């Protein structure tokens, strides 16, 4: 039986492979470069800078996928509880991404809910004239 590697082991392997091209870059910068390469390949991103072009050519020459590597690097930015589940291999990368997205939306939802209640209090305190009149 082949032991499946965790996402974080794959990220370390990806870093070793990309070490020549992404020297001195942080994980976030590398992730952004991989994202640009992916969208360039899809035709959504029109122009790559010099470093991104080197990375794009390196990936193509070695038969590597910018999309897969990008997915691995996004696991580093997930919340701690999701990273622990990924490390234990209890959830997949796709499941981790959807959970992180839902968590972000939930946090933003609380902020928007507070904003709506504040607007409701302001508008509710206003006096509306002519609302009870019926026009025929």
Q: If you had to describe this structure to a student in words, what would you say it looks like?
A:
It is a single chain. By secondary structure, the protein is mainly α. It has two domains: 1-77, no CATH class; 79-110. Helices cover 65% and strands 0% of the residues. The protein contains six helices and no strands. The radius of gyration is 23 Å and the shape is elongated.
Estimate nothing, just give the exact number of structural domains: 2
SS-derived structural category: mainly alpha
Termini distance?
Answer: 81 Å
Listing every helix as H and every strand as E from the N terminus to the C terminus, the arrangement reads: HHHHHH
Low-confidence stretches: none
Number of helices: 6
Mean pLDDT: 84
Question: Mind summarizing the main beta sheet?
Answer: none
User: For the CA atoms, what is the radius of gyration?
Assistant: 23 Å
Q: Name the shape in a single word.
A: elongated
DSSP strand count: 0
Task: Report the sheet-strand fraction.
Answer: under 5%
Classify the helix fraction into a percent range: 55-70%
List keywords for this structure.
6 helices; elongated
Quick synopsis:
By secondary structure, the protein is an all-alpha fold.
Topology (elements, then pairings):
Blueprint: H1 7-18, H2 27-42, H3 50-61, H4 66-74, H5 80-87, H6 93-124
Helix pairs in contact: 2-3, 2-4, 5-6
